[in-house]
Amino acid sequence: MLVLTRRTGESVRIGDEVTVTVLDIRGDVVRVGIQAPRSVTVHRDEVYRELRKANEQAARSVDEGAALLTDALRKRGPGPPRPTAGTAPTPGPVPTPPVPGPARPADPRHPTPRPPGT
């Protein structure tokens, strides 16, 4: 670990893109300002540790979920056979074409003829 002494207003450079400046010192509390490109993530250490902990827990739960899914699929057994190369899949039901309606709205002056007995 590199240990440096800085006074208020003095800075430390990290690489070419990050500058840490001491803004204020009050007792045992030091305020620092950090200038860095948006691509550089900057977190307080306690926040960073919480983020890592949450990410590790999320990764474990995904691993556990994948294991549960794998076990369920193994218990279910093999599914239907898969088609091999060069074979066509089994066709499904053929859709019924829609029934055409009247070509134009009925004209009230010329009623549609009815079949006899209706």
From TrEMBL:
Keywords of the record: Bacterial flagellum biogenesis, Cytoplasm, Repressor, RNA-binding, Translation regulation
What's a single GO BP term from this record? regulation of bacterial-type flagellum assembly
Ranges where the record places region Disordered: 56-118
Q: Which GO terms describe its molecular function?
A: mRNA 5'-UTR binding
Q: Its GO CC terms?
A: cytosol
Gene3D superfamilies xrefs: Translational regulator CsrA
Q: Where in the cell does this protein reside?
A: Cytoplasm
- Among its keywords, does the record have tRNA processing? no
* Keyword Repressor appears in the UniProt entry: yes
Describe its function: A translational regulator that binds mRNA to regulate translation initiation and/or mRNA stability. Usually binds in the 5'-UTR at or near the Shine-Dalgarno sequence preventing ribosome-binding, thus repressing translation. Its main target seems to be the major flagellin gene, while its function is anatagonized by FliW.
The family database entries (NCBIfam families) matched by this protein are listed as: csrA, PRK01712.1
Which family is this protein grouped under? Belongs to the CsrA/RsmA family.
> Under which name does UniProt file this protein?
Translational regulator CsrA
Name the gene for this chain: csrA
